[in-house]
Amino acid sequence: MEHRLLHVLTAALFGLAVGSFVNVVASRLPERRSLVHPGSACPGCGVAIAWHDNIPILSFTLLRGRCRACGMAIAWRYPAVEAATGALWALAWWMWGPTLDFAVAVLFVTALVAITAIDVERQIIPDLITLPGIVAGLFWLSSLPAVAAWVGGT
Ligand SMILES: [Zn+2]
Question: Domain ranges in the chain?
Answer without folding.
Answer: 2-152
